[in-house]
Design brief:
The chain is mostly helical and 93 residues long. The chain is 60% helix and 0% strand. It is built from five helices and no strands. Helix 4 packs across helix 5. The longest helix is centred in the first third of the chain and has 16 residues.
Length: 93
Amino acid sequence: MMKHGALIAVALGVLLSSGCSASQVINTGGDTLCKDFVAQDQKKQDEEVTKMLKDKSGAEPANLEISTTRLSVSAYCKTLGKPDSKISEAPHG
């Protein structure tokens, strides 16, 4: 089992060192940067928002909450947010 974990760590390291951001490889939730969030498709954005909301409340968010938060984060990242702002900095629920 340890060998398998080491292989995953090496693969992740290679992906990260090849210029991919962490949120392109793993779900970074609220730590996702605006520049990465706006480049993602809606499904990936929903995954990031879901993780952020779940990490915050400890409960699985409702679809409506995910959708409205994704729209809020997207608007924030395209206006007030800087490319390196975390999506958790966006005003939401």
